[in-house]
Amino acid sequence: MASSFNKIILPSRPHPDTILGIFLLKTFGKEKYPGIENASIDIWQELPKGETLESLERKGVLVLDLGGGKFDHHKKGKTLSQLIAEDLEVVDDPALKKLLAYGERDDKFGLGTISTDPIDKAFGLSGLVASLNKALYDKPEEIIKLVTLLIGAHYIEEKKKTDELPKEFEEKLKDGKAEVFEVKQGKKKLKVAMLESDNISMAGWLRSAEGLKADVVCQKMGLGYVNILTKPLKRVDLRWLAASLRNEEAKLRGKKLKIFTLDLMKPGKIAEIPEWYYDRATNSILNGGTNPQGILPTIIFFERIKEIMQETLSQKSPEKN
């Protein structure tokens, strides 16, 4: 085997499974195939005369899907990405599970995008790769760079969901910086998670099926900003909570409000208390969101926010009151 790899060979224009395989090599293959992360891409229809897979490897050339070698999936009943994942011993990485399943679905069954909707098919990854192959037909390396950026972003987020976020949340629970409780809103039981964390992926993970399946997440950032997000399908009524948070903020800041409670429930921003934005579109209450842009962090203690949430989320809807 070569001391350094400088080229990766494909038999045709890159498709999703091929690009995924190259992503795996460049991300996880640096130790086994030194230099592979910087290897250029070329397309050959067949091996050069007098060359074998072994002789090419000694020259730092790694051939994929050509010549019947270990990375030629055509007669092996597996996808190229699966073969590479096995070779690199990352096939059991939970963060790669969806990517490998996608590679198989696209390559074996031609169902990279299952939806029959023409917009879904056009803008699904498989459709975009097909468009790139037409637009950049003579630039396979550019196509691979573009698509591996997307694949890499997905992998980073999956790694967070399967490894980093569960660990961080467990640590927060132990340190008393996270808490989970239930409240009943009408006939609905709501699982509420509260925590202190600067990780912007945390709230999404806590609401996801892979995470806590929380219906409501209240997250305090290191700078003091607090944002409350909900699971859209649960249709959590946040009106009493919005009104109470705004009222509490005003009291603590020494503001005397001449606004009815129903006005404090209104969506959007209220000029007198700009710290809390009630977004009906996402059904969230935001104290600055992820990009505060001049909004001040709340001065309500986090423990008090918890009390307000427990009180207001269980209240009857304003119409019934």
Provide keyphrases for this structure:
Diaminopimelate Epimerase, Chain A, domain 1; 7-stranded mixed sheet; 11 helices; alpha/beta; single chain; elongated; 321 residues
Would you give an account of this structure?
The protein contains 11 helices and 10 strands. It is α/β, with parallel strands linked by helices and 321 residues long. The protein has 2 domains: 158 residues, no CATH class; 137 residues, Diaminopimelate Epimerase, Chain A, domain 1. It has a 7-stranded mixed β-sheet with strand order 4-5-6-7-10-9-8. It starts with 6 loop residues before the first strand and ends in a 9-residue tail after the last helix. The model has no long low-confidence stretch (mean pLDDT 95).
In summary, what is this structure?
The protein is α/β, with parallel strands linked by helices and 321 residues long. Helices cover 40% and strands 16% of the residues. The protein has helices at 16-28, 53-58, 80-87, 97-109, 118-123, 125-135, 140-174, 202-207, 239-252, 261-264, 302-312; strands at residues 7-10, 40-43, 61-63, 178-185, 188-196, 216-220, 226-230, 268-270, 273-279, 284-286.
